[in-house]
Amino acid sequence: MFIQLFLKTAAMIAGIILAAKIIEVSIRAFWSRRKPGA
Amino acid sequence: MRLELLIAVIALQLLPILGIAFWIRATSKGHTEIQSDFSLAGRGLSMPVVAATLALTILGTPHIIGVFEMSWGLGATAIWFGLAHVIILCVLCLSTGQWARRLNLTTVPELLERLYSRNVRIATSCVMAGSIFGVLTLEAQGLGVILSSMTGWELKLCAVIGGGVGVAYIFFSGMKGAGWMNLVNAAVMYIALVLATYFLAKSLPGGNFDTVRAFYSDAGNSDMLKIFPSFEGVVNFALALALILVFSMPINQVLLQTAMSAKTQKTVKNALWVAAPINGIFCVFTLVMGLTAKALPEFSQLGPKLAAPAMLVETLPTWLTVFLLASFTGVVLSSFAMVTLAPATIFGHDIYKRVINPAASPAQVTRVTRMMIVGLSLVAVGVASFLPPIIASIGWLLGWMMPIFWLIVVGLFWKQSARAAAVTLAASWAINLIWTFTNLPIWLGVPDMPNTYAILAVTIVVGTAANLVLPGKSGYFYSVNYQSDAIVSEV
Lengths: 38, 491
Prior knowledge:
Chain A has one helix spanning 2-34. With 38 residues, chain A is mainly alpha-helical.
């Protein structure tokens, strides 16, 4: 039970970080086209 | 047990605090202390220290006692409490934290003056410092509760002892000392958690958690072991929690002060990969302890508040119980220290230096900041000792900061209008008060709707309308000021 919860949570954390990174890169790419430096 | 605990707290907390303070004094001999040394560690914190500090600042009593209790009713869904904090760290490390470091800020209200006006700065200083002080009283109370549940001592005495150690945590060496202490506490905390979970499993039949799983499955409650909530759970718990935390914490001085203290903007960005796991995984351990306590009849009869602490005290070897409880104390102390430093810095920088004594020297500002640390802690401990449990007020306290997040994003990227900012702040803060202290939610037919949704809706609607109607400059990142400012640090 502990190992399962641990692995699932670790996977969720990795997923959240990756999703955040993808959103960040997308916004940065969109924004740098509009106005460099922001 | 009480004496052992006291010795463990002293050995694991007070001695390292004093040792680190001595080391910092010794290594900075001959160097005149300026304000940014005390409040921002001279903007020189390395990635591991920034990561540990960010992770532990938002890891406090709710992650321990709160998750013990939440696991009782929500089961494994309570893990979303930890995941919501991972989202906060993502927002902070990938956006607000980097902006704060890039702009060389000392406080969040300072940015609001740069974007809007002096009055907006003063208003947000007062509200943010007040709101953080409210959280400080919760932390002081939590510190008292956790020490009291471990030792059996009176809550008032525990709050005073905890407050005293908490002041020492930050008073002697400021941000730098607290940062290094957080790194020590993160390591101690995980060693204690791994050992406690291992010994807990060994004490169960079969030497593992299979009997706990069987307890929930046999009773038809296998949903308690699932981490994905139902739709109602999403709306009433996960989403409301995520919204209030994500729209208030990433612009909170408590967290941003660590980002401002980082060596570079890149340090903040890289810290995410360490801070998020340190913070997020913690809840797995406390969740399993809570679920196990409920599955054991001799402890479940004690109820959600006492079952898990009682189980740990009864089941684990004494040395490990003492080690675990001392590490839990360290976890709460780290939050207490940062929550004390933030309003003290705001007072020193935004009220004392900006309004009361503009000619103040950096040394004077540091002295005022130190005095505020002691003063605020004393008042918080007093309030915590005499008031009933006030954890329910956390949503109300954090609600005050939601419009500030909006103002920062809008001012940086869209429009800088001081009048629109004032209107947005006034409307959002008014709805927080009205929603909390009048029958408006009942009249609207949504008595259970958290204030989060109301504040967010008013902030977005009023904020957008005001910026469309009222005049202002373009967003700061597009302004000539930003392009030409020497404040932009090369990273």
